[in-house]
Amino acid sequence: DFWARLGRGEFVAGEFKRITKNGSEVWLNASYNPIIDDNGEIFKFVKFASDITAEKHQQQEAESRVDLLVRELVAGKLENRIQNQGLTGFLANIATGLNQMLDGITAPIADIRTVMSEIGQGNLKVETQANYLGDFLPIKQAVNLALDNLNDVLQQAKSTATEVALAANQLLET
User: Fold this and answer.
1) What are phi and psi of 84, to 5 degrees?
2) Backbone conformation region of residue 157, classed left if phi is above 0, alpha if psi is from -120 to 50, else beta
3) Which is more confident, 152 or 130?
4) In 3D, which of 52, 60, 61 has the Cα closest to residue 26?
5) Beta-ladder partners of 27
6) pTM (2 d.p.)
7) What is the DSSP secondary-structure string of 22-51?
8) pLDDT surpassing 90 at residue 10
9) Which pLDDT band, with edges at 50, 70 and 90, does 86 fall under?
10) Mean pLDDT across the stretch 117-125?
11) 49 strand-pairing partners
12) Is 6 exposed, middle or buried (0-12, 13-18, 19+ CB in 10 A)?
């Protein structure tokens, strides 16, 4: 397609991978422009190119880091983050943004895990404490409401048990 387009007199622009004589990879951001003579024939091509190998390698490294993070997240490993050392510009901003997003997701989960652990140990006076934003706020409210309702039920059961004990004592005294 590349040579066919040039052969038709069309310019071709984009990112191109080239292999040097020593076998190393070079990436170019280039445009290839056919030059047409007075007879309408292509007589040469002019290439304008800049070496983007370093940027391409950085992009590939960032993609690799994101792929690793996604695999870990799918496996339920929420504590991992993208290591953004060596990343610059847009890629560094993306890595930082993803890490901040994960922090915003994992903080409420960790808080709820703590609350559930406390409940499991018999502490029913615990409440969710983290700063929940967006869609997590109704979760916080629901957990705290459930705890309040559970405490109310337990208080009613305690009150009923006390009344039953008093009534039983009165029956024994008569």
Assistant:
1) -105, 10
2) alpha
3) 152
4) 52
5) 17
6) 0.61
7) TS-EEEEEEEEEEEE-TTS-EEEEEEEEEE
8) yes
9) confident
10) 88
11) 30
12) middle
